[in-house]
Amino acid sequence: MSAEYVSVPGIRVSSADPKLQKQARALRQQGLNLRQVAAYLGTSMETARQSLLKADNDVACGRTAEPLPVGHPLVLKAMWRGLEHWRTNSDSKG
């Protein structure tokens, strides 16, 4: 096994880290149990478990780390909602 993910002593590792999720998932696919995955990554068993759950959830939901394209309806809706929010707040103060 090649160690892609290197844990640094004193640095808190988050289960939301995509590198950790990818490495944990690869180790599980190789047949390692949760305790072995946690030991290999240098994390607690809970962090390894959470990273596996998040990785599986992201795959199931089709989530990626890529940003949405410019002009995407979701982006435009969020932008307009923010503008309307600030407009109504500034009108009530003035």
How would you describe this protein?
The chain is mainly α and 94 residues long. 62% of the residues lie in helices and 0% in strands. Helix 1 packs across helix 3 (45-61) and helix 2 crosses helix 3. The longest helix has 21 residues, at 73-93. It is elongated and about 60 Å long. The mean pLDDT is 79.
Over the alpha carbons, how many angstroms does the gyration radius reach? 20 Å
Principal-axis shape: elongated
Helix/strand class: mainly alpha
Sequence stretches where pLDDT stays below 50 over 5 or more residues: none
Taking the alpha carbons of the first and last residues, their distance comes to 63 Å
Q: Supply the number of helical segments.
A: 4
Taken as a percent bin, the fraction of beta residues is under 5%
Helix share, percent: 55-70%
Please state the average pLDDT score.
79
Largest sheet: none
The ordered string of helix (H) and strand (E) elements is HHHH
Number of strands: 0
In short:
Helices cover 62% and strands 0% of the residues.
Please outline the helices and strands.
Blueprint: H1 18-29, H2 34-41, H3 45-61, H4 73-93
Helix pairs in contact: 1-2, 1-3, 2-3
